[in-house]
Amino acid sequence: MPILEAQALTKTFRRPDKDSGFKGAVRHLMQRKYKNYTAVDGIDLSIEAGESVAYVGPNGAGKSTTVKLLTGILRPSEGTVRVMGRDPHVERIANAHDIGVLFGQRTQLWWDLPVEESLKLLKHMYGVSDADYKRRIERFDELLDLNEFMPALARTLSLGQRMRADLACALIHDPKMVYLDEPTIGLDISVKDRLRAFLRELVNDGTTLLLTSHDLADIEEVCERIVVIDKGAVAYDGSIERLKAHYITTKAVNLYLEGAANVPELAEKFPDYEWTAGEAPSEVVVTYESNRFTTAEVLGSLTAQLSPRDLSLSEPSIEDVIRRLYAGELTK
Amino acid sequence: MADTQTPAIAVPVRHVFAIYWRTWFAQIRSIVEYPADLWVMASAGAVWNILQFAFLAVLFANVPDVAGWGYHEMLLLSGLLSVAGGCNALFWDGAWSTGAMVIKGDIDYRITRPAPVIIQVGSSHIGMQSIGEVVFGVAMMVYGWIGAGIGFAAIPIGVLAIACAAVIQSALVTALCAVNFWIKGQASIFAFLMIELQGNAMKMPLGIFPIAVRLVAMFIVPVAFINFVPVAVVTGHMSAWWLAGIPAAVVGSVLLAAGVYRLGLRAYDSAGH
Amino acid sequence: MSHSIAVDRALVVISFKRRLAYKSHWFFGLAIGGGSMLIAMVMWQNLIGSGTLSGYDWDSMRAYTIIGFVAATMVFGAADWIMADRILDGHIAVDLTKPVDFQRARAAEYVGSMLSTFPTAVMGVVAAWLLFQPPGPATPLAGLLTVVSFLLMFPLAFGLTYLSTLVCFWTKRYLGIMWLREALLSFFSGLMIPLAFMPGWLQAVAWALPFPHFTTTPSAIYLGRVDTAGALGLLAAEAAWAVGLWVLGWLVFRTAVKKVTVHGG
């Protein structure tokens, strides 16, 4: 049985429909008009225990709304959510013991209290035993260097420290199902690396993870499965490997020629490849299908006939695939 | 609250109290971090109360009574009102942040924790003006109590009245602050409207107002049970039977607050998407 | 600094429009102010009846209460939080980089927000006039001078509010400061109870402060409790306070702004 199951999950918000400015406000006062806005539109999602799922999509695609529906913060307009067999909104308290949540944009630390105090309040709220608490704090300290800022007031923390403290808060009760909404947002590279290592460890220990992020490195390093949503609906759901194998069918070479590149002329000369202009006048991008030609073949033919000043190979990334998924170029 | 829909797994009351007090004590310890604010707030509360005292002293230098109520009786009325407001600020000030939390999406985390949301919000802040309000409010009450010659026998009633006043005041404020789940805004304007009008009207004997006002203050928004009814009973202006109305007002206002909050959480749509 | 009248006017207009857009401000200003006015009316009617108290009969007390309502609406309805927040959240650092005098700019905004209380004040006064039919001004000249005293309330209210928001340079929150100011203003202006009811020493304390000009001065002029010379004297005192607070605000700001470099949210 899946640990999390959502069926035909839909959330519609009602928004006031008013023009900006004073006149708009007055007109809205006279005749109240509203627009319905569907943020999540019939999403089906099933996650097995131990899976690590990346949940990605462009801004406004409905990622955060989905997380809020799955965690019981919002009530679905239609459809159902079951986490370990429970409706998270109706059986809120029982569900709360099993889930850990982090919203990267917001903190759950008590603003005017030391970090340690916040963690102790949560320990008490979740009914964590002294021994478990001690053990987990030690482990978090090992991986996240918590002790460095345990006595500091939450309001004085740097963003990286705050995020690490918030992660400890989300995991202090050893939840089975963890939701992380943009856990690396605004962090510098070194903190990101540290956080990712921590999350990998978490997944290896068997915690089920749902992670949203705009940083695809988070996803590639931590998750096995990826769910792409766009305009509130699932655009892709499957393993990251399969996504790559399935969609990354082309490779590209950047050529830097001696003089200005004449793209139409080159395209005529090598009709098997696709030619596009590069950033500089002398630069040109050659795209070829990786199942028809080997890179050696392509480079051989190009260097023999064009003798470029320099060249570079670009490995198409998952980022490109997802960009194309967002743009609607690819279909399921 | 959503959790009350499933009685089988509701949080034990003792655990809820423990969570509340732990949070409250943690805040108390943090207050000393900003001594300037502590003193500004505490003196604001104190000055406000001293001026209420001064108002009555000035008024009674000019008039012998207000609708049959003497100086010391009116001091009791004002004092109990201040103590009720002060207790709200001391023990339940977080309720005032409901609107701001709704706008900022700060209710989110609280929904994902295994404790009633209303408890987490209520205990999230301490209004330091309460120190001045409670101390000077009690001083007014004691002075009025002795001056009115009420005696020791009624002291238990007075203590109980303070406790009930604090609960009714906090519950009514909570219910009105929860309106911000629907009408979005940083400021808790409905609760603010209530305490402003209550602060002006309820320091007077209710009898001077038209019947409609009296009915509203007794039965619709039962602010009369916070200070007027208990003071009127101990000073002999009302029959002791009215005391029975106080626990009823406590239960009614608490149920109202919990109910409005629960409906509010159902309607909660979080900030951003 | 190239701070022109045009800048002032623009700031007044923006602030006025911004406040006016919040329809809830109108409603709650009217509900709170109007409610408080009705409560005061009930109290004084009950206390005065057909007699007089400290020289006020029921007729003059009705006018007094309405004047108090207008003053309270103007001074409590203005946007003091915007000033305080700029200091508390560190926005002031941005303001200081602009070619605009900080105090003048805040004054223009404050005046704009005070003007936005106009609809509330007018609605309240019209309703009160119909309900209570207060007496007119003692003389036409007294009426005119009452209007002048209300106009002087603009710079006076700004000076007082500006000074109190500057305290935020030394605290983390504004709420307590606001309460303190409002409490003192309510009492020493005569809004809670006319100054004439107070013992001599307390009246002396009140008149040593800027607060009486928020209710006592306009009502004393309107009701003819002072003659024309007295009225002019009161207006001169009010104007002197406005100027004095402006200068004091300028001095305090100069000291306070030295802290700005390290002040943050």
Automatic annotation (TrEMBL), chain A:
PROSITE patterns: ABC_TRANSPORTER_1, ABC_TRANSPORTER_2. Residues 4-256 form the ABC transporter domain. It is found in: Cell membrane. GO terms for biological process: response to antibiotic. Its main location: membrane. SMART domains: AAA. Keywords: Antibiotic resistance, ATP-binding, Nucleotide-binding, Transport. It is a peripheral membrane protein. One of its GO terms (molecular function) is ATP binding. One of its GO terms (cellular component) is plasma membrane. This is ABC transporter, ATP-binding protein. It comes from Glycomyces algeriensis.
TrEMBL record, chain B:
It comes from the Bacteria. Keywords: Membrane, Transmembrane, Transmembrane helix. InterPro entries: ABC-2_transporter-like (IPR010390). The chain crosses the membrane at residues 38-62, 74-92, 134-154, 160-183, 204-228, 240-261. Pfam families: ABC2_membrane_6. This is ABC transporter permease. It comes from Glycomyces algeriensis. The lineage of its organism: Bacteria, Bacillati, Actinomycetota, Actinomycetes, Glycomycetales.
TrEMBL record, chain C:
The chain crosses the membrane at residues 26-44, 64-83, 110-132, 144-171, 183-209, 229-253. InterPro entries: ABC-2_transporter-like. Keywords: Membrane, Transmembrane, Transmembrane helix. The keyword Transmembrane applies. It holds the Pfam family ABC2_membrane_6. The keyword Transmembrane applies. This is ABC transporter permease. It comes from Glycomyces algeriensis.
